[in-house]
Amino acid sequence: METQKHKYHYTISFALLIAAGMWGLFWLPQRALESGGLTGGWATISQMVVPFLMLLPISIWRKSKGQSFGLEYPLIGLLFGGGIACYANSFLLTDVVRALILFYITPVWTTIFEMIFLRQVPRIYRYITLILALSGVWIVFGQDGIIPVPKNSGDWIALFGGILIAASAVRMEIKKPEGIYPILFSFFFYGGLFTLVQAFFLRDYLGSGPSFDAWITMMPWLLLIAVLFHIPTNIVILGAPSRIGAGLFSIIILFEIVVGSFSAAILTDELIGWREILGSSFIILAGLTEIIFASKSNDIENYN
């Protein structure tokens, strides 16, 4: 089973690149929410619940018009939402560097799942992009020669998060959801449920809930983040795998590392070193290689 090239292949790829880049800036609002009192994993919980509540009236309106309520993709919602929750909360339990390396092995899991569930034999260019992408991740974050082997619960959660994201991408490529709203609402609903359940098991690390004043103070920011960040970026991210393929998706989202590394260096006291420049170059080259060769491969198949 091969994915045919979508007529907007390059447009969707570029849009996903922008969305991934925006996630590279996500540490800015995350830090602001924490300084406002939403410490621990409470910021993660609130950023799943608030968009869901904002979209709920739309679902009710859709139902009154005879359209779907938007809950028909529970598996995709649980997989993708669970992956995001694991990624965010892994930082509470392990070193940031270890969490990032273990989570961003995602392209490997995607390739394995494509082989198992899509019966796709990886092309030569996929091995090239995997080497480039994973080398870039390791160069940026492996300053102490870290080997990506889980050593604690936080490591395992980060690794599991990457597996869930890869599985959700492949599932979306198989299922090919019709329309973006149902899958978006399913993500926030089922992903929110996953986040709440995970929060119960991580309650010792989350600590006591934020004060009422903190919720009131941060609510305008949560609404703004939902409108300007979570909803638009997830529309692109959730719509991409079924259109450009899970493999290409998993490579492009690594652009988050590039933007995150450089934005942190520019906006904080951190310096940009040779690791950030070289590693980011590898990741960008991996993305471009996958975009170009995946497109050419599908063109040849369609011609034949």
Q: Provide mean pLDDT, rounded.
A: 86
- Taken from the alpha-carbon principal axes, the silhouette is globular
- Number of domains in the coordinates? 1
Radius of gyration (CA) equals 19 Å
Span between termini: 15 Å
Helix and strand content put the structural class at mainly alpha
Extended strand count: 0
Q: Secondary-structure blueprint of this entry?
A:
Blueprint lengths: L8 H16 L2 H9 L6 H23 L9 H17 L5 H8 L2 H12 L6 H18 L11 H23 L5 H21 L1 H4 L5 H28 L1 H4 L1 H7 L2 H13 L6 H30 L1
Helix pairs in contact: 1-11, 1-14, 3-9, 3-11, 4-8, 4-9, 5-8, 6-8, 6-13, 7-15, 8-13, 13-15, 14-15
Describe the fold and architecture.
This protein is mostly helical and 304 residues long. The protein is 77% helix and 0% strand. It has one domain. The protein has helices at residues 9-24, 27-35, 42-64, 74-90, 96-103, 106-117, 124-141, 153-175, 181-201, 203-206, 212-239, 241-244, 246-252, 255-267, 274-303. Helix 1 packs antiparallel against helix 11, helix 4 (74-90) runs antiparallel to helix 8 and helix 6 crosses helix 8. Residues 299-304 have low confidence and may be disordered.
Short descriptors:
304 residues; globular; mainly alpha; disordered C terminus
